[in-house]
């Protein structure tokens, strides 16, 4: 005969305050992190491809779909109601991502990017609980995706960057 023994503690399957529970904003933001990774990967494929390559049209469609996915997730975040304080920094980061995606020049992109460094309190989740920890993780991952976006030619046009050329001094008469 077998003895009966419990292998799981009581209540482990029940939501508890110490566990992370999604809100509409955090759920959409979690999807935004994945959508940004897809966007970066699709844009990398295009930037490394030759436009005469037979697969280029498919890669271009993938990049456009990835961009649409990012903007859709951002819209979901912007339209969702803030339920807890940790939703605010997620919403702020989503607005920055929107500005970065819509930037039409290097100056606009860099200006939106600098907000992350100039106003760190807008993107901070203070606290010690599971909710604050998970939100900080999502914000950290988004910052990494933004750093990767900064290296893409669709966001930072290399032709707009002026090279650092030292001024040429006037010739000295002999």
TrEMBL record:
This is Uncharacterized protein.
């Amino acid at each position: 005969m077998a003895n009966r023994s419990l292998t799981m503690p009581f209540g482990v399957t029940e939501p508890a305050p110490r566990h992370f529970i999604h809100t509409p904003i955090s759920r959409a933001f979690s999807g935004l992190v994945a959508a940004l990774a897809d966007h970066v990967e699709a844009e990398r494929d295009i930037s490394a491809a030759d436009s005469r390559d037979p697969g280029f049209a498919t890669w271009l469609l993938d990049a456009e779909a990835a961009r649409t996915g990012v903007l859709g997730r951002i819209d979901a975040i912007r339209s969702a109601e803030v339920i807890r304080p940790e939703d605010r920094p997620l919403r702020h980061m989503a607005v920055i991502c929107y500005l970065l995606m819509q930037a039409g020049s290097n100056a606009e992109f860099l200006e939106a990017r600098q907000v992350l460094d100039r106003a760190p309190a807008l993107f901070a989740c203070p606290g010690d609980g599971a909710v604050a920890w998970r939100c900080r993780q999502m914000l950290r991952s988004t910052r990494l995706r933004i750093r990767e976006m900064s290296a893409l030619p669709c966001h930072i046009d290399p032709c707009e960057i002026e090279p650092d050329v030292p001024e040429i001094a006037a010739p000295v008469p002999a």
